[in-house]
Amino acid sequence: MKADAVFEGGGVRGIAFTGAVEAMEEYGYEWERLAGTSAGAVIAALLASGYTGAEMKNILASIEYSEFLGKTILNRIPFVGSGLELFIHLGLYHSDNLERWLEGLLEKKGIRTFADLPEGKLKIIASDISNGRLLILPDHLEQYNLEPKDLKVATAVKMSASIPFFFRPVIWKSKRKRTSYIVDGGLLSNFPIWIFDKESPRWPTFGFRFVKEEIDSEGVKINNPVDLFKSMFKTMLQAHDLRYINERTKERTVRIYTDGITATEFDLTADQIEFLYNSGYHAAQTFLSGWDFETHKAKRMQLKHIET
């Protein structure tokens, strides 16, 4: 059975997606097109290159996530080092390690640039903050006078996963010599469930996201500028995609419980990794027990008639 898949951004929690994917593949689904933001972009890229859910589980369960925090000499200077790193490079850490790791995995499947993939197979979401626009890669490359062969898939994922202030932005120069600062796609769309939508789909598009559907409205304490920024950024991440979380998207979305594990906990224990994987696996099983594509299409038509 064919299906498209869209993965939410979620940092180190992305291993939960591998459990969900494995359950879906055991059920008989094969991935036609894939899209993702941040950690979701990692999963989408690996699946698009030919990795299975089971293979990804073995890969993601055996890595040291803390190695993705690219540190420099400045990071090791007590008290002021991280502040200097942030001031000079606009991010606490570099994400070159993530790019090299992913590049090595993709090359094992014969994938380097977007030109090595079937057209339309993979879409990565990033944010161009220099030009104030959402980036869908490779679709928007022509706006930078570039072609799919000009951009490595691993670099696009690095762009999508560059959490503002946490990781350095990717400084991207086009053939026109214009410089753009690219950051996490979640800034503009953390859950791009809309990306493959069409009037009468021949197969389903499944969304994979973590349990969180409402913007926090209580318990947020803002005591300083850092708290203010974090709350503003969190609100932006959630508010944009809530516009697309309606009845048509909820029923095609696998929602995964994370037990409070955050996106930037790079020191995951073996137990936490196993928990996330199992949570994703069981969430997909529960979802499939009540899923029917024909029923979904009928509801879509009914909702569209009501809305118009």
Automatic annotation (TrEMBL):
A single MF term (Gene Ontology): hydrolase activity
Domain spans labelled PNPLA: 5-197
InterPro entries: Acyl_Trfase/lysoPLipase, Lipid_Hydrolase, PNPLA_dom
Domain of life of the source: Bacteria
Ranges spanned by the short sequence motif DGA/G, renumbered to the chain: 184-186
Active site feature: 38 (nucleophile), 184 (proton acceptor)
Gene3D superfamilies assigned to the protein according to its UniProt record, in alphabetical order: Cytosolic phospholipase A2 catalytic domain (3.40.1090.10)
Motif, GXSXG: chain positions: 36-40
Keyword line: Hydrolase, Lipid degradation, Lipid metabolism
Motif GXGXXG: where in chain: 9-14
Pfam families for this protein: Patatin
GO BP term, pick one: lipid catabolic process
Protein name: Phospholipase
Organism this protein belongs to: Exobacillus caeni
